[in-house]
Amino acid sequence: MNIALLGYGTVGGGVYELLKDRQDITVKYVLDKAPIPELGERSVTDFSVILQDGEVDTVVEVMGGSEPALQYLTGAMHAGKNIVTANKQLLAEHYDTVTSVAKETGVGFRSSAAVGGGIPWLPNLQRQKRLGQIAEVCGIMNGTTNYILDVMHKKGYDYDSVLQDAQRLGYAEADPTADIEGLDVRRKLMISANVAFDTSLTEQQVPVAGIAGITREDIAGFNEQGYVCKLYATARRVKDGAVMAVVEPTLFKAETLEAAVPANFNLITSVSEYAGRQSFFGEGAGRWPTAFAVVQDLLDLCEKKQGFYTQISQPMPSNNLCEERRYYVRYLVDTWFMDGCVEKRWGNGVITRPVTPAQMHSWYLEARRNDPEIFFAAFNG
Ligand code: HSE
Predict the structure, then answer these.
(1) Distance from the CA of 62 to the center of ligand 1, in angstroms?
(2) 277 has which bridge partners?
(3) What's the whole-model pTM score?
(4) Is the CB of residue 147 less than 8 Å from the CB of residue 263?
(5) Test site for ligand 1: of 121, 175, 179, most ligand atoms within 8 A of the Cβ
(6) Residue 300 to residue 359: CA distance in whole angstroms
């Protein structure tokens, strides 16, 4: 197999290293914005060189972002080339487009690295739905925020200093806002739900709150009360063919599996008709786990395993009003909504009576404009 690698950053460099001594897969080109002198003639800056080379059978995209990645990948598929991508943003925003071009052209299309880093999560969802329905996908899906929360809980450090560590370790996105605000998790949840439920969710269907406002005092309060805070994503089938999907900081009792997830690890769970609850644990971010998943996809293509997007996706209506939970909320500016919700004071904030995620997130979006330091977390169970 001859491949072209688009992107030579943290993950691209790792993929190159894992492939450079193999006989079965040859890296013919590496595309980046500027020439890479140590790669000699393999280094290109013009995608048309790759597109026009009939010897390149597979394009590996690890550059990230929607454009020009979308244009490159659809062009490559129309030229009959297989695709392996780790690009969460592209998949979340253009799931229907890329999967339908893959179907139309009949090329292989694999993206295991897009969710869970080295964890074989998406291929397992495909296996599960061969036998019965998947009812729910959920979990800790972002290595950067898990690392930050874990270090804050265990060492009492400040949020800002730990974020810098996560960036240095290669876990964070180029712009860490996507990690911190939960946008990276939302993308991963959308992709997981799309594969699990054969749908194509939109961002508007998944309310999101990240960990940007969290303080060491919040964490000290959670520790005292026996809770651990995680950034958690859930997408669940609910009645009338709808989906309940949300990303929010969530408090787990210290003795739960979720609370124990350390450092940059992920814990991703599915609930399916016959297998019940299954959780997958592993490194969800970083050069080697992600490069490992990309190379596994290439090896699957060598074995003619084309991809796992075989169903026609159908839209699902949202219902984020169908269940309620209590929330911890720390805020400065009083509002009528919170006046009617507070059950008691707790640590640095309050605990609400049970409210729906839709109610809490719409209040949060509005309240955050006047109160940027606001923070909330749902109680699990
Ligand atoms: N920034 C992402 C994370 C990388 O921290 O999980 C892996 O998708």
Answers:
(1) 13
(2) 271
(3) 0.96
(4) yes
(5) 179
(6) 44
Of the candidates 125, 258, 146, the one whose C-alpha atom is nearest the C-alpha of residue 197 is 125
Q: What distance in angstroms lies between residue 180's CA and the mean position of ligand 1's atoms?
A: 10
Using a 6 Å cutoff on CB, does residue 173 contact ligand 1? yes
Q: How far apart are the first and last CA of the chain?
A: 49
Instruction: Return the best residue to mutate from 111, 122, 142, 189 for the ligand 1 pocket (most ligand atoms within 8 A of CB).
Output: 142
Q: Which residues of the chain have pLDDT under 70?
A: 308-312
Token code pair at residue 300: 């699957």
In this structure, the strands spanning 26-31 and 43-44 are: parallel
pLDDT tens, position by position, 339-362: 899 999 998 899 999 999 999 999
Taking the C-alpha atoms of residue 278 and residue 268, their distance in angstroms, rounded to an integer, is: 8
CA pair distance 359, 246, nearest whole angstrom:
12
Q: Dmax over Cα atoms in the chain, in whole Å? A: 67
CB 5 within 8 A of CB 16: yes
Rounded Cα–Cα distance for residues 295 and 291 (Å): 6
CA distances from 214 to 123, 148, 153, 229, 365 (A): 34, 10, 11, 10, 16
The total number of residues shown for the chain amounts to: 381
Residue 296 beta carbon below 6 angstroms from any ligand 1 atom = no
Q: Which atom of ligand 1 is nearest to the CA of 115?
A: 8
Query: Where would I find the H helices in the chain?
Result: 10-19, 47-51, 69-78, 88-93, 95-105, 122-128, 143-155, 159-168, 177-180, 183-197, 216-225, 287-302, 336-339, 357-370
- Tokens 């974020």 -> residue: 163
Q: Is 188 a catalytic residue?
A: yes
C-alpha–C-alpha distance, residues 195 and 52, integer Å: 32
